[in-house]
Design a protein that fits this description.
By secondary structure, this protein is an alpha/beta fold. It has 13 helices and twelve strands. It has a seven-stranded mixed sheet, sandwiched between helices. Strands 9-12-11 form a three-stranded antiparallel sheet. A two-stranded parallel ribbon has the order 1-10. GO terms for molecular function: pyridoxal phosphate binding; transaminase activity.
Length: 397
C-alpha cells in the first residue's frame, strides 16, 4: 500500500523535529535550554480563559456556521477597522481553527495548478509546503540582511511573469523579526495592482512590535480588494492551544474558504470563538505587559549575541525571534554550515536553536549562515543559554 502522490509534495515544520530531539535528550537527563519553538511562554489571560469556561458551562458546544459566529465576525471586523483604518464587513471575515488554515484554504481558493506564488525566503515553511501541495509553483524571494531582512522591490519585479498569481507577505516576519517599511508596502501594492495579483498578508505578529508602528498593505487604497489578510489569537493573546484564527478577504474568497471549512472541519469550536470575542473586546493590559517583557528579552538577547565572537545580530523590529549571522562562528569552529552549528550547540552546549534550512532553501548566491532563536522564554534561560553558546563557540579546541 502507498500514499497518494500529493503527500510527497507536503513539507513540515522542522522546529517540531528539533523539539522532539530536545524532549528525547531531556528524557535522558540532559539539561537543554530551548530557543527553538515560536510560542509565547505566557498563559492565556484570565478573562479569556473565563470566557471560554463560561461558554462551555452555558452549553455553547454545538455546531455553528462554517464561516464563524456572526457576533464574533462583527467584532473582528471592528478590530480590523480600528487597527488597519479601513471599512470591513463581517461578511469579509472567516474564522478557522488557528491562523494556519487561512494559508491552506486561501491558496486552495485562488491558486490553480501551475500558477506561480512568490513567498519570502527565509520564511515560515508552511508557505512553500502549501503552495506545492495545491499544485502551484513556489517562487522564493530573498530577504536580505543588508535590507534589515526585507527585499528589494526591483528584485520582486523580476519574479513577475504571466503565470504569477500571488505574493505572500509576512510582517513582522518569522524567522527574522524584520518588518516591511512604508515604502516597501507601497511598492508591493503598486506591483500587485499593475499585475492584477493576489496578496496574502500574514500579520499574526502585528501586535508584537517594538520600535516602529505597524503598517498593513490592506490599508493602501486598492489593496483591500486583492488581499487575504491572516490574523489570529495565538501570538497576541498567548492562545496557541486554543486554535483560533481568522482571515479578512473579499466576500468571494471568504465564501470559498467557508465552503472548504464545511468540507473539512465543519466549523471552528463555538467556545473558542467566544473566548476570542473576549480577547479582542476585553482588557488589553496582559498583551501590553507581554510585549514589554518581550522587548526587554529582545534587548538582552541581541546584546548578548553581539558579544559572542563570530556572531552578529540585527535588532528585530517585531515578533519574538532573532536571526543572527553565524558565518564567522561556523568558520571559526570548522563547521560547513549552520546545521552543523545547530547540532553542536544542541549536543555539546545544551542549547536548542534552529538552522536557516528550517526556513527554506538557501537563496541563489547566498553564502552567509544564520540561526533562529526564539526569545519566548525567560530572561534566566536567555542568560544561561547565551553563556553556554559563548562558552561553546569561544573555547579553545
Amino acid at each position: 500500500m502507498k500514499l497518494a502522490d500529493k503527500m510527497y509534495s507536503l513539507g513540515t515544520e522542522t522546529a517540531f523535529d528539533v523539539l522532539a530531539e530536545v524532549v528525547k535528550l531531556q528524557e535522558q537527563g540532559k539539561n537543554i535550554i530551548s530557543f527553538a519553538i515560536g510560542e509565547p511562554d505566557f498563559d492565556s489571560p484570565e478573562n479569556i480563559k473565563q470566557a471560554g469556561i463560561e461558554a462551555i458551562k452555558n452549553n455553547h458546544t454545538h455546531y455553528n456556521p462554517s464561516a464563524g459566529l456572526l457576533e464574533v465576525r462583527k467584532a473582528l471586523a471592528k478590530y480590523i477597522e480600528r487597527t488597519r483604518g479601513i471599512e470591513v464587513s463581517p461578511l469579509e471575515v472567516v474564522i478557522t481553527p488557528g491562523a494556519k488554515p487561512i494559508i491552506f484554504y486561501g491558496l486552495l481558493a485562488t491558486i490553480n495548478p501551475g500558477d506561480e506564488v512568490i513567498y519570502p525566503n527565509p520564511g515560515f515553511p508552511i508557505y512553500e509546503s502549501m503552495i506545492n501541495y495545491v499544485g502551484g509553483v513556489a517562487v522564493p524571494l530573498a530577504l536580505r540582511e543588508e535590507k534589515e531582512f526585507s527585499f528589494r522591490p526591483e528584485e520582486l519585479e523580476t519574479k513577475i511573469n504571466a503565470k504569477t498569481k500571488m505574493i505572500i507577505l509576512n510582517s513582522p516576519h518569522n524567522p527574522t523579526g524584520g518588518m516591511l517599511s512604508t515604502e516597501d508596502l507601497q511598492q508591493i501594492a503598486r506591483i500587485a495592482i499593475e499585475n492584477d495579483l493576489w496578496v496574502m498578508a500574514d500579520e499574526v505578529y502585528s501586535r508584537i512590535i517594538y520600535d516602529q508602528a505597524f503598517e498593513s498593505i490592506i490599508s493602501i487604497p486598492g489593496m483591500k480588494e486583492r488581499t487575504i489578510l491572516i490574523e489570529g489569537m495565538s501570538k497576541t493573546y498567548a492562545m496557541t492551544g486554543w486554535r483560533i484564527g481568522y482571515g479578512v478577504a473579499p466576500e468571494i474568497v471568504v465564501n470559498a474558504i467557508a465552503r472548504l471549512c464545511t468540507n473539512s472541519i465543519s466549523c471552528t469550536a463555538t467556545f473558542t470563538q467566544l473566548a476570542a470575542l473576549e480577547a479582542v473586546t476585553g482588557p488589553q493590559e496582559d498583551t501590553t505587559k507581554m510585549v514589554q517583557e518581550f522587548k526587554e528579552r529582545k534587548d538582552l538577547i541581541v546584546k548578548g549575541l553581539n558579544e559572542i565572537e563570530g556572531i552578529s545580530c540585527l535588532n528585530p523590529k517585531g515578533a519574538f525571534y532573532v536571526y543572527p549571522n553565524v558565518t564567522k562562528a561556523c568558520q571559526n569552529k570548522g563547521f560547513k554550515n549552520a546545521k552543523e552549528l545547530q547540532e553542536f550547540l544542541l549536543h555539546e552546549s545544551g542549547v536548542a536553536v534552529l538552522p536557516q534550512t528550517s526556513f527554506g532553501m538557501r537563496n541563489e548566491g547566498e553564502t552567509e549562515e544564520y540561526i533562529r532563536l526564539s526569545f519566548a522564554t525567560s530572561k534566566e534561560n536567555i542568560i544561561e543559554g547565551l553563556k553556554r553558546i559563548k562558552k561553546g563557540l569561544e573555547r579553545n579546541e
